[in-house]
Specification:
The complex is a heterotetramer of chains A (261), B (287), C (376) and D (318). Chain A is α/β, with parallel strands linked by helices and 261 residues long. Chain A is 38% helix and 23% strand. Chain A is globular and about 60 Å long. The relative contact order of chain A is 0.17. Classes of the chains: A alpha/beta (261), B mainly alpha (287), C alpha/beta (376), D mainly alpha (318).
């Protein structure tokens, strides 16, 4: 049974159809690619899956539970974490604090317990810091642990957002164009990092308009165009599907000419 | 008693509406609230007083002169002061509160005592049904109507009007299509100062003018703008009129102690129930 | 002219800071009042009265050769700040305090004087709660709302023949204090008010309240409020067609009443604390006072200036002369004081609650000025 | 080198504290009186700091909430004869309940709407204090509120009260540091940086904001409690919009998120209000100018200018 299955998901903004009857299955342990030209609805789909937008109709079932009406924080607690296309970090907080916030998983606990310094509060905090350190190590950010997030170079900010999402220990990770703005060497590094994270058993959905990134990483890919799913299958085959090429306007045959629009 | 309260309420409602327009104009273009607006209204009244005492202008020229001077003052202050306050809400709000305090106490140095305003709009008492009121009340209502029509015409038919609407919709895009955004913002402040100053002159003869007259009127006008819809001009006008009339009814029929409560209870309820106000539309929040 | 006014005010403000440099052996007399904020005109009147009295006393050799130095504290007509202002005088330290305007402010700052054991003569607050059997160090020369409200109620029915009396009052201490005593006095004479409404001091529009009053078509309208609300009520009442004659107490006793409502205030009858025409000495003082202070930024306010002047010249000075600056002796001297004051008919004396018992003065507004009330 | 620097700074702090504790001994009573006001005002200002500094929410109702705390204890002590200290918890609770009841829904709204709602709350509370005469004596205010007695030792004079005020300010500072360092503090700072990102890392944004509002009300209520038993006469006008503006300015001037900065700003601005007193209107003009120019040139608060830290300004360690 699929980890996540969305059926008939539709969403419109003031008459403009953003998503139209999308059906999508994400299998347990899969690394699914989601490609499509700009404005095809990729980010909108992620915003719906993560609860930022409410669907007009259709349903989303995650591990047997319907989540399309839940709030953002509730969906995260169900186990879905995401990164953002434009990096949304807590600029005035340190790198460690950014990740610890996620590691705490919004555990309310009693604020009073915290303030009075009860043992349970201290333990929860230490556990969170441990998780955070592990994620920082995974993403190679340990040495900039005390820096302010806003003072990090762009590439490191990118990895920090990834580390923060991992600290939520999700079962499904939605990556929204993680490679945007990276130079080729950083891209390669990121690809290896995603491969390693996926290797540890984490199910990932990757939105990326750089087709080569997707074909390199993902076995399966779906293609969105103007809010519709126009292809779903093995990533190598999907890329050569004529309709997909039409959507990308003149993507010429062959690997080397493929380029992001 | 009903018609006396209604017409009285209508006149005060017009003042809240016109001063409220000042809030709406600035909010539409900048998503900021200028808390010195009430004191600009007060300064307009004193400006009218000084001019009327020195130059014996009849009503209409007085309104136009005060409007023009306030317009210029608004443009200048936008360039010198407000432009440096656009960092975020908090900085703009506290900065405008500071400007309000300076304006109020600056006027108090020259006019520590309430002063009668010359009867520029005539002083004969008019009678409609059992309601009796000064001629000046008619001036308030008529001027408000004229002002609204002029503003509406300006926004729909003139080039500057369209430019202002573009900036209100999305300043970045407006900039890219050739609208001089800074000039449009300065123009908006000029307009909001002029509108408030005219309201000050209109109300002058009805009551006395005093340095602290801006506080309560400013807060009530603010509630009117939120109630009607802070990004919609017709909404603010409607909000002002409704609050003005309801206030008078509460004072007349229930108890005058809670006359002021009406505006603030409406403000609070509206914010929670419909923050965009009666006629306001949702201002899109970009994710 | 405007610039002159500005310089005048800076001058006034500056001198407050210097405040006649107090030499070591000078007697320090504290003055607390609201010289900014809503009560500015009342506060400055008090300061002028003090300056005039002290200048005359010092010119005549002071108190046994010791000069009196004024220490002025502006409480901005705000209760919270009046506590701090009095604390400053206690801390100076001053030998006694003569001043105080606004019942809320005096109710706040008198406790500081009581706790510090500092004689405090109140000149500008009429709420009855200030002088009770509990206060030991606080005296009051201006008579309370109760005396004035009783007298105006009596005059309204007996001398003005009013039958249908309506009441509009400020929601502050002054308004509420006067209303309660006025209604009690009317009840004693068997008259019920036909309408009663209240308003907030900062209100500008009174159509709501006055419409209710017009419904009751009264022949007399008692206004217990201060400037600028009272003249605004008078103007708007006449606009609404209310013909009733206006009556009131000390809150209306301010020349600004006639400047703000020149036509509507005609014929108003009110009790007041001071009037030039009651006796020759009052007229002489008034002329000297107006001549001395007409140049300053504030138009002269004789009413409270007169009380401050009389309290210092005829009560504080003689007691300082006889019992020096020992606080307890000074207090006893004041409490036993008895004597004649200009513009006060008959003799006045302090009762055991520290209230100066005296006859009040009835005046009428006639062609823009207060005139002694002569009957109808 | 850092070891030396800390001990040198440490010494300054210790010396300053010693001077402060001994203040009633050598300072004139009037100075102690102003110091008491400063210490009392740090409570509503720090309370407001939870909202402005740490949650990015501006509130103009702190003056009214301060008043609710003051009136609760004043009425309980004068009308029901409760002992002053017994009314501390009720005063704080009443303020929190009222703040959350009136502002709980509004605090979740976008920043600008929340400011508007707090103005409504401020005016409503003031009007009720002024007009519900049977409960609050309205414009007559509440008189002869008893002083706080500690073991039969009445804190009547400014000198005696000073130690209670100092202790209260100390506890308030210490507790505030703990709150900011706690998980809640982390959530508040996160949501004020980027609310959407915060909710997408499982932070219950709505609940955190209401908690911040409740905390700011609790601090205001405690401050009101102290104020009532120090001034011992309260009047609605002491808790008007001007008071809210005063606390907002103090909390914003202290520096974006520095509690120590807020305390220093409170000291500077409160003593400025006192020592500019003889200048009447000019005092208020100066005050307005400080506000305006301060926001124009130091939007992040004057004291962040003073701090010369290199890269990472002093952040509260988690």
């Amino acid at each position: 049974m699929a980890l996540l299955s969305a059926s008939g998901v539709s969403l419109a903004f003031a008459g403009v159809r953003a998503l139209a009857q999308i059906d999508l299955q994400i299998e347990e342990g899969e690394l699914l690619g989601i490609i499509g030209p700009n404005g095809s609805g990729k980010s909108t789909l992620f915003n719906v899956l993560s609860g930022i937008y409410r669907v007009d109709d259709g349903s989303i079932v995650f591990r047997g539970q319907r989540i399309e009406q839940l709030g953002v924080a509730q969906i995260v607690r169900c186990g879905i974490a995401r990164t953002f296309q434009n990096k949304r970090l807590f600029g005035t907080m340190t790198v460690l604090e950014n990740v610890v916030v996620a590691a705490l998983k919004g555990a309310q606990g009693s604020a009073l317990g915290d303030v009075l310094g009860l043992r349970s509060a201290a333990q929860a905090r230490d556990k969170a810091v441990a998780i955070a350190d592990r994620c920082l190590a995974l993403t190679g950010l340990t040495q900039s642990r005390e820096l302010l997030a806003r003072d990090l170079p762009y590439g490191a900010q990118n990895r920090l957002e990834l580390a923060r999402a991992l600290a939520l220990e999700p079962t499904l990770l939605l990556l929204d164009e993680p490679a945007a703005g990276l130079n080729p060497s950083e891209r390669a590094e990121l690809r290896e990092l995603i491969r390693r994270i996926h290797g540890e058993g984490l199910t990932i959905a990757l939105v990326e308009h750089d087709v080569r990134m997707v074909t390199g990483l993902c076995a399966r890919a779906i293609v969105l165009d103007h809010g519709e799913k126009i292809a779903d299958g093995a990533s190598a085959a999907v890329v050569r599907d004529p309709r997909v090429q039409a959507a990308y306007f003149g993507v010429v045959e062959g690997e080397e000419e493929a380029h992001g629009v | 008693m009903f018609d006396q309260l209604f017409i009285g309420g209508l006149a005060t409602g017009c003042i809240y509406a016109v001063v409220g327009l000042g809030f709406t104009l600035v909010y539409r273009t900048l998503r900021m609230v200028n808390f010195a607006q009430g004191h600009v209204f007060m300064a307009g009244a004193f400006l009218g007083l000084v001019i009327a005492e020195r130059v014996r202008l009849p009503a209409l020229p007085l309104l136009l002169v005060v409007g023009a001077v306030a317009f210029a003052l608004g443009m200048v202050l936008e360039r010198l002061v407000f432009r440096r306050l656009y960092h975020n809400h908090e900085v703009f709000i506290v900065g405008s509160i500071g400007l309000g305090i300076v304006l109020m106490n600056g006027v108090r140095v020259f006019f520590p005592e309430p002063v009668p305003f010359p009867k520029v709009f005539g002083s004969t008492v008019v009678q409609i049904g059992t309601a009796r009121f000064q001629e000046a009340y008619l001036w308030v209502v008529v001027s408000t109507l004229v002002l609204v029509v002029l503003l509406h015409a300006m926004f729909t038919y003139t080039r500057t009007g369209r430019a202002l609407r573009a900036v209100a919709a999305d300043a970045e895009i407006a900039g890219t299509v050739g609208v001089n955004v800074n000039r449009a913002i300065a123009f908006t402040f000029g307009l909001s100062f002029a509108v408030a100053a005219i309201a000050g002159v209109l109300i002058g003869p009805l009551y006395f003018v005093s340095f602290d007259m801006g506080d309560m009127v400013g807060l009530k006008a603010f509630s009117a703008a939120v109630f009607g819809g802070i990004n919609s001009i017709p909404g603010t006008i409607l909000g002002g009129l409704v609050i003005g009339v309801l206030e008078n009814f509460a004072g007349g029929y229930i108890s005058s102690a809670y006359k002021d409560l009406v505006a603030f209870v409406i403000l609070l309820v509206m914010l929670i129930w419909r923050p965009t106000g009666l006629l306001g539309r949702e201002t899109p929040v970009k994710v | 002219m405007k610039i002159g006014k500005l310089v005048g005010t800076i001058g006034a403000a500056a001198c407050v800071v210097m405040a006649m440099p107090a030499l070591a052996q000078d007697i320090k007399l504290g003055v607390v009042a609201g010289m900014s904020g809503p009560g500015t005109s009342y506060g400055i009147g008090i300061r002028q009265g003090a300056e005039m009295a002290v200048k005359e006393i010092n010119a005549a050799g002071g108190i046994k050769g010791r000069k009196i130095a004024l220490v002025v504290a502006d409480d901005a007509s705000n209760p919270a700040q009046s506590v701090t202002a009095m604390q400053r005088l206690v801390n100076e330290p001053v030998d006694l305090v003569v001043g105080g305007w606004g019942s809320s402010q005096v109710l706040a700052n008198m406790d500081v004087a009581e706790r510090a054991g500092l004689p405090y003569i109140v000149v500008g607050a009429t709420n009855p709660k200030i002088t009770t059997d509990k206060n030991k160090w606080t005296f009051r020369v201006i008579f309370t709302d109760s005396v004035q409200a009783e007298q105006i109620a009596d005059a309204a029915v007996k001398r003005l023949g009013m039958k249908r009396i309506a009441v509009i009052h400020d929601a502050n201490d002054y308004g509420v204090g006067n209303r309660d005593i006025f209604l009690a006095s009317l009840k004693k004479i068997g008259i019920e008010p036909v309408a009663m409404v209240s308003y907030q001091s900062a209100d500008k529009d009174f159509t709501a309240q006055l419409s209710r009053i017009r419904e009751a078509n009264p022949d007399g309208l008692a206004i217990f409020g201060t400037i600028p609300a009272a003249p605004a009520i008078m103007n708007q009442a006449r606009d609404l067609g209310i013909k009733a004659r206006f009556i009131g107490t000390g809150g209306l006793a301010n020349e600004n009443l006639m400047t703000l409502s020149p036509k509507a205030s005609e014929g108003t009858v009110l009790t007041t604390y001071f009037h030039e025409d009651v006796d020759a000495q009052a007229r002489a003082w008034a002329d000297r006072y107006v001549k001395e202070f007409s140049g300053s930024a504030q138009p002269p306010r004789p009413v409270l200036a007169a009380w401050e002047y009389r309290a210092i010249k005829f009560i504080a000075a003689p007691c300082l002369e006889s019992s020096g600056t020992d606080k307890e002796k000074l207090r006893q001297c004041i409490s036993r004081w008895k004597g004649k004051l200009f513009s006060v008919p008959g003799e006045a004396y302090f009762d055991k609650t520290g209230q100066l018992i005296q006859q009040s003065v009835l005046v009428e507004v006639g062609n823009g000025a207060f005139q002694a009330f002569k009957g109808k | 080198m850092t070891a030396f620097r800390i001990s040198q700074r440490g010494w300054i702090v210790v010396a300053a504290l010693a001077a402060l504790v001994a203040l009633p001994g050598y300072a004139p009573q009037y100075l102690v009186h102003v110091a008491n006001f400063i210490l009392i005002y740090t409570l509503p200002v720090i309370g407001l700091g939870f909202l402005t500094g740490f949650t990015g929410r501006v509130s103009l109702a702190q003056g009214a909430l301060f008043g609710v705390g003051a009136y609760t204890t004043a009425l309980l002590t004068t009308k029901l004869g409760w002992a002053p200290l017994a009314t501390l918890v009720p005063s704080v609770l009443m303020t929190v309940v009222l703040a959350v009841a009136l502002g709980g829904a509004a605090v979740r709204l976008a920043g600008l709407y929340f400011v508007m709602a707090t103005i409504g709350i401020q005016q409503i509370v003031w009007l009720v204090l002024m007009n519900w005469i049977e409960l609050t004596n309205g414009p007559q205010g509440v008189r002869s509120i008893p002083a706080i007695g500690l073991g039969g030792y009445e804190l009547e004079t400014p000198q005696r009260f000073f130690f209670l005020a100092l202790a209260a300010a100390g506890i308030s500072y210490f507790l505030a540091k703990r709150v900011i360092g706690s998980r809640l503090g982390l959530y508040l700072r996160a949501l004020s940086d980027d609310q959407l990102a915060a909710s997408s890392v499982a932070v219950e944004v709505g609940r955190a904001k209401v908690t911040a509002l409740a905390l700011s009300a609790a601090w205001a209520g405690a401050g009101g409690f102290l104020y009532a038993h120090y001034v011992r006469y309260i009047h609605p006008d002491m808790f008007g919009l001007e008071a809210s503006v005063l606390y907002l300015v103090m909390s914003m001037f202290g520096g974006y998120r520095s509690i120590a900065g807020m305390i220093v700003a409170t000291a500077i601005l409160e003593s400025a209000t006192e020592y500019l007193r003889p200048f009447g209107e000019f005092r208020m003009i100066a005050y307005g100018m400080i506000l305006l120019l301060g926001m124009m040139y130091f939007p992040k608060g004057i004291l962040t200018l003073v701090r010369r830290r290199a890269s990472a300004p002093a952040t509260e360690k988690s």
